[in-house]
Design brief:
heterodimer, A: Rossmann fold, 2 domains, four-stranded parallel beta sheet, 10 helices, 46% helix, elongated, B: mainly alpha, two-stranded antiparallel sheet, 75% helix, globular
Chain lengths: 317, 338
């Protein structure tokens, strides 16, 4: 067994030496993330590909290797390959799950590569050199802050939540904390699983149950689409009713640019964060400034004024 | 093996007949009373309409599943099948806009495409099961994965959205009413009646029951077993395509999260309704009640904040088990252990 690995290592080393000779100075950066199976992840995939094109055109000596994996164990193997086959100098990783990928990422770090973790933290601190993530509590807080500017004491809202997870709790708790004391009543909150169909059905039931609703916090753009369909079906989409989603889906942003009154704003949780992470990682090799550290992106409130800068019509999300 | 299934299926069918027929209806009635007590708005016209319309998807699919299960098969691919059909319908309609405009023709092309795909997908499941001699569970587990990944591929991982102009033409199919009932409910009613007739008044229905009871005996009785079994999957496919036709105009989109777990909901509806999972006995009427019960559970849970959101699945599971126990339990009688 041991001899085999040794032979394998020798062979790899030989190949690397050969290819390395051809392009001695290439900076190789592996980018690993889950295979896109929902719209947000598809948007992330699109932005990663765009960033790859842009960065490789900008720096001919940078080689970005994009790999997506369908499950945590496949991602762990992909990370091993990035080290053994490609001998990467840096890794940008959006872990499928924190727990099972902590060790594999640690192994990549031991090979000497710079580690950038995106969106989902690892379960052991101090592994990553760079951390880039959206801000879930801030998404909830910014949404609540907007609600407060539009609503007054005694107004009623309903809340549709995502899939029961830590992300959902962080958003929801921050929203409730910000709403507290404003006199706005949260009639009830139900899980709509970040899904259009569930958003539609949960909202239908809220509409049957509560005759007086002034606004809806849908937390997510997909849920918001279902909510809007239910409001229109019940004919309760007028009278200043509004829905606040979240993420930054292109259709939603287009609507905001066009002055849609039912969904007047959106709160950003951008799939493009992978591009930010890739930029920062490349900067680690190119910039004369220090880059290591934690980058927590803002949960920007997207309004008609700033919507254009968040609109990517070619992205799938 | 086959002998024992025969001997247990038969007496229970005779003994518990009344309870079996009434069980699902009683369960639904109890649920409605609970819903009304929690919030009188439960019985408002709007909510009842929502409930019935929502049940239509699972209900129509479950009518098809009743045939498959009665004939001793199982189809796990229906949810993914619905998603991929919805996706292809949207792609076809969007691309037909250039040639046929945004009128009724385009919508009809979409619907036609849905029916062809449904029949085709059902035929594939059926032939692989009968001619390919692979267990239905494995065949449909395979096609489930294939269809689910196909829709993800077509949508490029994202969401397929129907052209907004066609949406205007197609939208009434879900949202409009006809004699006070939404159109999806009418489709559900028609499918149910057709299904009931096929199951209870035709030779085909009796063949399904016979095959599900004992396939070898059915074969010796000159029933074309393979043909009948394949047909049950084709019927299932047709039902899925009809459900998809009324699903697409609701939100005008399809993604990889469309129709997730519909197969299990459909199977649950069939079993709650009194059909035997191992085949040989099927009840269309029960299936319809089963679909209504499943939708009502979800609806009631949205009507109350007494139960933690995290326990929704627990409540659903409990009610499903109790509903089936109501009709299977030999309560009051001596269980004749054989």
């Amino acid at each position: 067994m041991k001899t085999f690995t040794k032979i394998g290592a020798l062979a790899t080393a030989a190949t690397i030496a050969l290819t390395g000779w051809a392009s001695a100075e290439t900076i190789k950066i592996g980018v690993s993330y889950p295979t896109p199976t929902h719209a947000w992840a598809a948007g992330m995939n699109w932005h990663a590909e765009k960033a790859e094109e842009r960065l490789e055109a900008l720096y001919p000596d940078v080689d970005l290797i994009l790999v997506n994996s369908p499950d945590p164990s496949a991602q762990a193997s992909a990370l091993e390959d990035l080290v053994s086959v490609h001998q990467i100098d840096a890794l940008v990783v959006l872990p499928f799950e924190s727990e099972p990928l902590t060790d594999p990422v640690l192994n990549v770090k031991k090979s000497g590569a710079l580690i950038t973790v995106v969106d989902r933290g690892l379960s052991q601190p101090g592994i990553e050199d760079i951390y880039v993530a959206g801000n879930n509590p801030e998404l909830g807080r910014v949404s609540a802050e907007y609600m407060k500017t539009r609503l007054k004491d005694g107004d009623n809202i309903v809340v549709l939540r995502g899939i029961p997870t830590l992300i959902d709790n962080e958003r929801f708790d921050a929203f409730m904390a910000e709403i507290e004391g404003s006199g706005i009543n949260v009639l009830d909150h139900k899980h709509a699983n970040w899904n259009r169909d569930d958003g539609f059905e949960v909202m239908q039931d809220f509409l049957s149950r509560f005759p007086d609703i002034d606004a809806v916090w849908a937390q997510d753009d997909d849920i918001a689409i279902g909510v809007v369909a239910a409001l229109k079906q019940a004919g309760r989409d007028g009278d200043g009713m509004f829905v606040v989603g979240g993420a930054g889906m292109k259709e939603t942003i287009k609507g905001i640019m066009d002055g849609n009154e039912l969904v007047p704003v959106d709160v950003l949780y951008p799939p493009a964060m992978i591009a930010t992470a890739m930029d920062v990682t490349v900067s680690a090799f190119k910039s004369n400034g220090p880059v290591a550290g934690r980058y927590i992106l803002g949960a920007t409130l997207i309004t008609p004024e700033n919507a254009a800068s968040f609109y990517f019509p070619d992205s799938p999300f | 093996m086959t002998e024992t299934t025969m001997s247990t299926a038969k007496p229970s069918m005779l003994r518990g007949f009344d309870l079996k027929t009434a069980g699902p209806a009683i369960a639904l009635l109890i649920l409605c009373v609970i819903g009304f007590l929690l919030n009188p708005a439960f019985l408002s016209e709007g909510n009842i309409t929502n409930l019935l319309t929502r049940s239509a998807f699972i209900g129509i699919i479950a009518v098809g599943a009743t045939f498959v299960i009665t004939a001793g098969g199982i189809d796990l691919s229906v949810g993914s099948m619905a998603a991929v059909i919805a996706g292809v319908m949207i792609i076809v309609m969007n691309s037909a806009v250039d040639t046929f405009g945004t009128g009724v023709t385009t919508v009809l092309i979409g619907c036609g495409c849905s029916v062809i795909l449904g029949l085709g997908a059902g035929l594939v499941n059926g032939l692989l099961t009968t001619k390919g001699k692979i267990e239905a569970f494995i065949v449909t587990l395979g096609t489930m994965g294939i269809y689910r990944s196909l829709v993800t591929y077509f949508a490029d991982g994202g969401t397929l959205s129907l052209n907004y102009d066609i949406r205007g033409v197609y939208r009434p199919v879900y949202y409009d009413s006809f004699f006070g009932l939404p159109i999806p409910v009418w489709v559900f009613i028609v499918v149910s009646i057709a299904g009931w007739f096929l199951m209870n008044r035709t030779a085909f229905g009796r063949y399904c029951t016979a095959i599900g009871s004992n396939e070898s005996v059915a074969k010796y009785s000159a029933i074309k077993v393979d043909r009948v079994k394949t047909l049950t999957y084709v019927i299932q496919g047709l039902c899925v395509s009809l459900a998809t036709i009324i699903y697409v105009p609701r939100l005008g989109s399809a993604s990889s999260s469309t129709g997730v777990l519909w197969e299990l909901e459909a199977i649950a509806a069939v079993i709650i309704g009194g059909t035997v999972l191992k085949g040989g006995y099927g009840r269309i009427g029960g299936t319809i009640l089963g679909a209504l019960i499943l939708t009502t559970i979800g609806n009631i849970l949205n009507f109350t904040d007494m139960i933690s959101n995290y326990l929704n699945g627990t409540m659903q599971g409990l009610i499903i088990i109790v509903a089936v126990w109501l009709q299977r339990g030999d309560w009051g009688r001596n269980t004749s252990a054989d």
